[in-house]
Design a protein that fits this description.
Length: 440
């Protein structure tokens, strides 16, 4: 059997830092050992206690001066938009027209799809991200290419074919029936194959007819473990357009709700401009919101009200998303740092560093209803890990030396850190990325 062992300081969550003092939600093992067999963690705890359990012949990968975490989880990202990142000057609807649609049109070519899928997955691993909920394009080939590349790496990925049957260029439109048939075929091929999972993916209410949304709802309801992902209430112009397209609906969320698209494993990107009754409905239905702070700042979309969303009286599941290519970084560390700033802009409560790390790991896993598989370091969990280097740059080294608590150190990492802090990434019990160099 395939065995591995990691030694070093590791951190993992045993509770929810939004419902208890953040420090109490975190377990820290100062000199820890993580034992892995066939891609799963079998034992973890203090090195001195567990060292006797290291199987003969297994060499221990030691990470002194590092911090081992569960791999990061990106709950909203578009792989075909890798080439669109950092495109100047527009807000959402114009940005889609000018930059996104022309780029996505190229993904009818499977070679383009494969090249970009590969580059995208490498970029995730360079950033310590081991699971993501990923939008492909309208072309089924784009989904096949993505899952094929993910399968080679052994990453647990959630992805799906974008559905668009109106308000998009000819080359990017399907029809309600064709979108249904193509999605069905991809579900049959990929959902539950190895670590791959399928998400029914209507882009948003503007680009799908009511018929297509109903078809997406039928697909989503057809199996009890499928995902659904779409965009919700991101931008004022978008919301106004949705109102004219669906005048009879009580809210933007209600457009999706009436189509059967709201429930557990439904992931709504952005959800910036939601009303209280929408949050209540999200809580009641156990769907999830993907908070994408770098994207919301880049497109000038608005400030997500995180603490309203997770209000303990009716908490809604929330994860963090990079939303590449509207987002400006693949790094969940950077995304946490921006989420902190957005929390200050949006209200009185300040995101705590431990809460931010939870949103990128255990909290995201809960939002995806995958908390029994990923997001924490514990026996039985899948062995997806990232190894953080708190002194990756001279500035980080200088600043982290001064930290008197783990919370301070995590805050420094999320505020100053990025891909340079990822020393190694492990997927399915294998080291799939190791940072080669380090600044002197
Ligand atoms: N709304 C509909 N499509 C998109 C997209 O590709 N990116 C973002 N940020 N918002 C969207
Ligand atoms: Fe998006």
């Amino acid at each position: 059997s395939r065995t591995a062992a990691l030694r070093g300081r590791f951190v993992t969550f045993t509770g929810n830092p939004f419902t208890m003092p953040p420090e109490d939600s975190l377990h820290v093992e100062e000199d820890g050992l993580i034992l892995i067999e066939n891609g799963k963690i079998t034992q973890c705890g203090a090195y001195d206690t567990l060292r006797a359990h290291i199987p003969a012949g297994v060499n221990v990968t030691h990470y002194p001066d590092s911090l081992i975490s569960a791999g990061f989880i990106d709950t909203h990202v578009h792989y075909p938009q890798l080439p669109v990142i950092a495109s100047w000057g527009e807000q959402l609807l114009e940005w889609l027209q000018h930059y996104v649609f022309p780029t996505e049109a190229k993904f009818s070519n499977p070679e383009v799809a494969q090249t970009i899928a590969r580059a995208f997955l490498q970029e995730l691993l360079r950033n310590g991200t081991t699971t993501a909920a990923v939008y492909c394009t309208v072309h089924p080939e784009s989904v096949t290419a993505f899952f094929q590349e993910s399968e080679k790496l052994g990453t647990r990925m959630i992805a799906g074919k974008v559905l668009m049957d109106r308000n998009a260029p000819d080359t990017l439109r399907d029809t309600a029936q064709r979108g249904f048939d193509e999605s069905q075929k991809l579900i049959d091929t990929w959902h539950g194959k190895g670590r791959q999972l399928y998400a029914v993916t209507p882009r948003f209410a503007i680009t799908s007819t009511p018929e297509q949304l109903d078809c997406a709802g039928a697909l989503f309801q057809s199996r009890d473990d499928l995902f659904m992902q779409t965009h919700l209430a991101e931008n004022e112009d978008e919301i106004a357009f949705v109102k004219t397209l669906f005048p009879d609906r009580a809210s933007y969320l209600d457009v999706y709700d009436k189509a059967g698209l709201v429930g557990p494993r439904a992931i709504f990107g952005h959800a910036i401009h939601l009303h209280e009754h929408d949050f209540q409905r999200c809580h009641d239905t156990e769907c999830s919101l993907a908070h994408c702070p770098t994207s919301n700042l880049f497109l000038g979309s608005g400030a997500f009200r995180l603490f309203d969303a997770v209000d303990p009286r009716r908490p809604v599941h929330v994860g963090l998303g990079t939303d590449i290519g509207a987002g400006t970084s693949f790094s969940l560390l950077s995304t946490m740092g921006e989420a902190y700033k957005v929390s200050l802009m949006a209200g009185k409560q300040r995101l705590h560093a431990i809460q931010a790390f939870w949103l990128a790991t255990a909290g995201a896993a809960k939002a995806l209803h995958l908390e029994n598989k990923i997001g924490t370091i514990a026996p039985g969990m899948e062995a997806d890990l990232c190894v953080l280097d708190p002194s990756a740059t001279p500035l980080l080294a200088l600043r982290s030396r001064d930290c008197s608590s783990l919370a301070d150190l995590l805050f420094v990492l999320m505020t100053l850190g990025d891909d340079r802090c990822i020393k190694a990434t492990w997927v399915d019990g294998r080291m799939v990325y190791a940072r080669a160099d380090r600044e002197a």
